[in-house]
Amino acid sequence: MILQTTWQGCDSSLTAPLVPDLAARAHQRDLPGPQGELGFYCKDPVGKGPSGLGEQYAALVTFAERLRAKPVGGGKRSRTGGRSREEQR
Q1: What region, left, alpha or beta, does residue 74 occupy, with left being phi > 0 and alpha being psi -120 to 50 degrees?
Q2: pLDDT tens-place string over residues 4-63
Q3: Closest CA to 46 of 37, 58, 55, 59
Q4: For labelling, which of 47, 57, 59, 66 has a CA lying 20 to 30 Å from the CA of 85?
Q5: Largest interatomic CA distance in the chain
């Protein structure tokens, strides 16, 4: 009898660039510091957040919606006086 197991850690290589991008986006949205919502991607999550996989996924989805909905800079006017790049040209 032979038992063979093939295990590949492809998920880690796919999500590795995504976590810093989400953290940078959170920082742009005035949400600095540890983001417990990103615990879905971590073996040992930092900060406050759920420990169950299902709850972590739900928190991640809610967090992504918050990042998408909240304006950059927390609603502050930009250095261009609130004008878009097209309006500046």
Answers
A1: left
A2: 887 766 666 667 788 888 888 999 999 888 888 888 887 777 777 788 888 989 999 999
A3: 37
A4: 66
A5: 73
Please spell the DSSP secondary structure of 3-35, one letter per residue: -------HHHHHHTTHHHHHHHHHHHTT--S--
Kindly state the DSSP code that residue 81 receives in the 8-state scheme.
T
Helix (H) or strand (E) holding 61: helix 53-69
pTM score, whole prediction: 0.59
Please classify residue 74 by burial: count the beta carbons closer than 10 Å to its beta carbon, then call 0-12 exposed, 13-18 middle and 19+ buried: exposed
Helix (H) or strand (E) holding 79: none
